[in-house]
Amino acid sequence: MDIESGSRRFGRVAGVPLYVHWSVLLALPWFCYRLEGVLAAVIASLAYTFVLLAHEVGHALMARWREVEVYSIRLFVVHGQCEHAVPYYEHDDVWIAWGGVAAQALIIGVAWAAQFVLRGHIGWNAWQYIAPLFHALIAANFSTLIVNLVPVAPLDGKTAWRAIPLLREFIREKRRQKTRRKPKKTEKELVESSQKIVADAIEKLRNKY
Questions:
Q1: Distance, CA of 128 to chain centre
Q2: What is the separation, in whole angstroms, between the first and last Cα of the chain?
Q3: Contacts of 32 (CB under 8 A, 6+ apart)
Q4: Residue 99 CB coordination number (10 Å)
């Protein structure tokens, strides 16, 4: 156990060392307040911790895809941290920021579909045990995702929304390249083109009269 940070190592996830801070336990009293029953709170707490982990794994996988070294993943009560090398290119930093958001969005999509299917096929008693799970995977997850996209440091939104100016610059550069590729007519070609236009006009006048 890391005494200074209050974290304990729990093996590896996606090949990356995982450290869990004791503060993740504070999610339990919060869900006890929000939900009815200790069992429901435990289920929701575990599911919410899974969401935090998935978010950081999303960062890690995206960093590896962009060939950026990943050092560790750390989980805390309401957020996590994916420690990685500083990307050489700005757009790689943006990709990594969106990796966590993409992971959360994927969970919301899968959980929503599963909830839609299960709710019509199980009884009310069984649903009471499953509902806290979906509360964490959908509602709590979505709230965290929205907050995380606020463009203020240290939230991911500060980096993620840099994608807009980078995309604009990419489009402008493509247009400049397209313009540069277009060959310009030489003076001789311009003269020949003008002569052809005049000759065609004269030929049309002759045919008309």
A1: 32
A2: 101
A3: 38, 41
A4: 24
- Residue 53 CA: distances (Å) to CA of 91, 159, 194: 24, 20, 69
What radius of gyration, in Å, describes the C-alpha atoms of the chain? 29
The b/e string for 22-59 (b: 16+ C-beta within 10 A; e otherwise) is: eebeebbebbbeebeeeebbbbbbbbbbebbbbbbbbb
pLDDT of 40 strictly over 90: no
CB contact at 8 A, 5 and 81: no
Least confident of 1-5, 51-55, 80-84, 135-139: 1-5
Structure tokens at 1: 């156990």
pLDDT range class, residue 202, cuts 50, 70, 90? low
As a whole number of angstroms, the distance between CA 138 and CA 109 comes to: 8
- The residue behind tokens 């240290």 is 154
Q: Which amino acid, 120?
A: G
pLDDT of residue 105 exceeding 70, the answer is yes
Q: In whole angstroms, give the CA distance from residue 75 to residue 53.
A: 7
Distances (CA, A) of 128 to 74, 112, 131, 140, 160: 32, 16, 5, 17, 37
Strand pairing category for 70-75 and 16-21: parallel
Token pair in block for residue 8: 């304990």
Q: How many angstroms separate the CA atoms of 5 and 20, rounded? A: 10
